[in-house]
Amino acid sequence: MLIRAMTSHYRRHPLQLLALALMIVVATMLWTGVSVLTGQARESLAVSEESVAAREAVVRADGQPVTVEDFVTLRRAGVCVAPWLETALGDPARRVIGIDPLAMACFDVPPAGDSAVGVAGELTGDPFVDISEVTGGSGRAEQSGQLSLLISPDTEFLPEGYQRRSFQLGPATGELADSFLLNLDALSLLVLFITGLLVRSVYHLGLAQRRSSFALLERFGVTKSRLQRLLAMELTLLTLICVVPGVWLGQALANRLGQGFGLALDSLFDLSLYAGEDTPVPWQAGLVMLVLVLGVCLVDRLIPERTGYQSKPSEPAVLPWWVWALMVAIGVEMVIWAFSLVWVFVGTALVFTGIGGLMPGLLARSADAVARRQSPGAPLGRWRYRELAVMFRQLALPVVALQFAMATVLAVQALVTTFEDTFEQWLAQRLSAELYVEIPESASAEGGSRTLADLNGLGDWHHVRRGKVQLPDINAEGEPVTTDLMALSPITSLVTDWTLLESVEEPWTALSSGGVMVNEQLARRQGLSLGQRLTVGIGSASLTMPVVGVYADYGRPAAELLIDGAGLPDDFTPSFQSFSVNPGERSVKDIGQRLKDEWQVADLVIRDNASIQALASQVFQQTFLLTRAISVLTLVLASLSLLVMGWVFFSTRSWYFHLLGIWGLQPDAVRAQLRRLALLLTSGVTLVALPLGVWLTWVLVSRINPLAFGWSLPMAVYPGFWVELGVVMALIGLVIAWLIGRQLNGQVSLRPGASLAGGGER
Amino acid sequence: MSETVLAAAALSKGFRSGEDTVRVIDRLSFTLSAGQSMAVIGRSGSGKSTLLNLLCGLETADAGDITVADQNFEVKQGVASPAATCQWALLRKRTIGVVFQEANLMPAMTLLENVQLRASLAGHRAGGEMHWLEQLGVGAEAHRFPDQVSGGQRQRAALAMVFAMHPEITLADEPTGSLDRQTAEEVADRLFEVQRQTGCALVMATHDQALASRCDHCLDLGEGG
Ligand SMILES: Nc1ncnc2c1ncn2[C@@H]1O[C@H](COP(=O)(O)OP(=O)(O)OP(=O)(O)O)[C@@H](O)[C@H]1O
Ligand SMILES: [Mg+2]
To answer: Would I find Membrane among this entry's keywords (chain A) (predicted)?
Structure first.
């Protein structure tokens, strides 16, 4: 009987139940999607890092490729080596790496990492497969693909005729990926927060609508605590029912989006890396949602006086405005001055909380102020702004949630676009020439330079030498601080269009005449500025050079300095040398052949940078697309809740729109008022979301990133996107107005009171 | 004083309830001259509110015709033409003032602002609103919001709104219905006083015999449907 009474409200207002259920389903779906995607992105990137991590291999001193015989010779000599066979497998062909887990037993740290080689030595899947799968049992590994022999870094002794060489499969995405993941994490926390706000607001609005029937039940002798228990049970049941399809939909969504991501990753690294297939159903996400929904909806029961349905739907701000304002001020200060990430996060949370407490009141006051300034000759305008003020007060929670969601969308859009640009730039900088030729250790770099210089019709090229140099500082262990050096010669257009964060006039000429450029990481760490003189120990010499430029060097943890190779002392031994070459009119084959002839080697590593660049940006585009999808979903959720709440709210006030009709406004004019009101509501929220979004962008790129990784992303704003968002919000406003307009027309009874329950607030 | 401002002829209205139709108003006719007042009485459910809604075009009769200030509305099929809807809206804007038992005011506006809104919709320039509030005895409360004054004061403000539009006809549906006896009488006193001053016609639905007897005419809808 009691249950019947409880459900009767929803039988009369099925849409309200539907709205709450829909909110829970969409919220669960969003959260599940976000957590699955973040998890997958993290795992995929981890595997990709591992497969492209630098390793050491043994090569023959005579330049010939290694064979199975070499493997046997080395093992017999007691050297810990293991085969590593890169090849294409399957249809469509994908690049896999064949390894021999047994041979790897002598490595202290398994080179293919934990994720590939299980404890018992069995292989867990792509990209690493058992070598016998690749060779098909023929034993002629070198015929099945490109064979390398990995060597344990601890190995000291190598037999005559062999050398070590480090090798890498592709460019390491490094911290650019980490940074992106950190931002993705921050985003999902924000999503959870917004979701909580929204679910709570819809639930409480529903409760407010049922206040009178609860009062009735109480008069019939049902105790308050019994009623509360029933309500809690009702909510638990509803959440349990709704979480299941939410989790399922979220996973389906994540997998759909993730597949594209996986494909792109595969093609970038020529390996199957995507960790997203066959993920178990993410029930934890469902559990989190269950706890969240029950938490945010029933938290009031813990506070004795303000029990659930008794509080007003608007829940007027419990704290005075200056407390909220103080919160914002402290938060902003904290973010500006923070010296660790934690404080940035705390500060950001404070700012959001403060703004959440401040904003509805502020919006309502501004609407009231505008209303006061309307001339008495335009009382309809005044009425509209007064109603707007009521709405901002009554719809405080969804308004704040929508503002946060929009700020998030704005920040994510700016961040993603910035990342895209940055990533393109970074790739262009790292892979500046079309070809990359590794200089074998036995070969003479000067000979190579001469060969290239003599080639007619060749495009720009430079000789890259990398190594370590010493800085004047001493670290905590009392050892001199070393840093990476990159020396280029000659200085050509391959570098002269790099992005310089700071530079003297004619920076590249200054570099050639004995200057030094430092990357942003080094500049930040050493507090270097333009014109300052930097003393570095290169080889046995000590050079003092003026800083002539600071270059952006995204996605690398390492500090680096750049000099003209012509100024290098003779006894500097580079750890790595290569040529970056634009072939110009020459063919790749021709260039390769000439260098092989010059160096008398049979085998040369030549990489096609253009295709790597294309593939790399493809991967990131997918990731960015995915992030955008998440943020758009957040916006959909927030808009949906505004739609639901706006609708419920307008229904309680529909009598006052009727009143306008009774006072002689034509139906079209009433609908026009409705439209203008709804548009004012959504555009007001958009307006306050803009500065918050810009601020959030700034926090992400200029505070969180430098603190976490030592480099900042350029801050950019995209007003074009603001306009797009504004249009979307306007459309939502129009939909609300249209829904209410329909309801007004459909309502036959024109008696006050019938539709007045709880609508007379101001 | 014999100019007719409101007349109904053979007016009928019924509501469907399930299969059959219940006739609430059955071939009703009356005329009302300018400055005169008429009480509409009858049991609850007898159709008083329905009649008032018909007289201001908020509901459409099934048959019969209504004449308001020289404009004739004849109903054929029980549906209002768009032109008639538009015409009724115009009449409610300038000619017919409507007061309900409650909720006549916009809650987010002060009493004065409410009166200003109503007057401006009727096409009057801003200025005289305070006068009407004072006339009805709520001048002191002009700057308060509806939820800051008593029910009686709200009804007075609602009447002030109607008079501020200088209507030819005022339709009042139990304007004192939710007030206590004492307050109801005070509000009624003001109402009749101002009605006489302005010379507008008044149609008032009421349960209150005493109130009905103060009107010039009385229309009894009887037991009703
Ligand atoms: N929209 C409607 N649909 C169906 N029936 C209606 C509708 N409006 C009114 N009625 C019916 O018409 C009859 C007259 O209603 P009305 O509200 O006019 O009575 P009333 O005399 O004003 O009553 P009260 O004194 O209680 O206000 C009632 O039986 C009512 O149930
Ligand atoms: Mg009635």
So the answer is: yes
